[in-house]
Specification:
Mean pLDDT: 92
Order of helices and strands: EEHEEEEEEEEEEHHEEEH
Structural class: alpha+beta
Number of helices: 4
Largest sheet: 4 strands, antiparallel
Low-confidence stretches: none
Distance between the termini: 60 Å
Length: 270
């Protein structure tokens, strides 16, 4: 039985069924609706929890209200409860434009079309084919929280990007970082984009700002966040340049009060 799905479902999915949560025996439109409700600030912290999605056993047809075992078509009225249906994930969705597919290695359904993605066994997640020969592997790269908003990345519904260093983060969070002039990875501090033009600006700024004579021979040790090299360089109040890769993404580790170039970058960008 075919029926329009426009008025059925929730803000997360268009579908014609609800699920009974096996953890609390309550009915919700989808797992996200459950998780949002059961992790809200109004809930006692000891009672907050996520639904074990693979353990869902019962669904309720949105048309006739029949509760039944998980299956694509309602046993009572025959309606298709989801054009895309995954028996393993207990997942229904009428919006097939997402091109959903089930990844056996991830153990969950993803979107974008299976032919457009590959599963990296070391990173433990699916990446675009465009990254197959260029991405830097990081053990279980998406099996952690976003370092900015702290939402778990592995099964998030938001867009994710992989930084040059291999760490993963929400794309929206990267844009928010850049709005605050933050251009280094929150996890490892490596630069997240090509900073060569900024380093040229630093060269000019340092050259036009000579230090007082009293600091002429003052040397400090720095650690480069980009290449990991330790160098002894002449002290400068603005920033210190890595002798190896020429990056100013460095931090002072010996020779005086510690410093980094982060606040200086923000000031120069403004």
């Amino acid at each position: 039985m075919e029926l329009g799905s426009g008025k059925y479902g929730c803000t997360h999915y268009r579908r014609k069924c609800k699920i009974r949560a096996p953890c609390c025996d309550e009915i919700f439109d989808c797992r996200h609706c459950h998780n949002e409700a059961k992790n809200s600030l109004e809930i006692d912290p000891h009672d907050r929890h996520d639904i074990p999605r693979h353990e869902v056993k019962k669904v309720i047809c949105s048309l006739c209200g029949t509760e039944q075992d998980v299956q694509q078509n309602c046993i009572a009225c025959g309606v298709c409860m989801g054009e895309y249906f995954c028996e393993k994930c207990k997942f229904f969705d009428d919006d097939v434009s997402k091109i959903q597919y089930h990844c056996e290695e991830c153990g969950i359904c993803r979107t974008g079309g299976k032919e457009n993605f590959f599963h990296c066994n070391k990173c433990g997640c699916c990446y675009s084919n465009m990254m197959k020969d260029t991405h830097r592997c990081v053990e279980r790269a998406m099996h952690h929280n976003c370092p900015v908003c702290f939402e778990f990345l592995f099964d998030t519904t938001k867009d994710i990007t992989v930084l040059q260093c291999g760490h993963t983060i929400h794309w929206e969070c990267v844009k928010e970082m850049q709005q605050h002039y933050c251009y280094s990875c929150p996890v490892c501090s490596k630069s997240i984009c090509d900073m060569s033009s900024m380093w040229e600006n630093f060269d000019r700024e340092v050259a036009s700002s000579p230090m007082p004579e009293i600091y002429g021979k003052k040397m400090v040790w720095i650690l480069c966040n980009d290449c990991g090299t330790q160098s002894e360089v002449q002290f400068h109040i603005i920033a210190h340049k890595c002798l190896s890769c020429k990056s100013y993404n460095t931090r002072q580790i010996r020779g005086g009060p510690s410093s980094s170039c982060s606040s200086t970058i923000a000031g120069m960008v403004r």
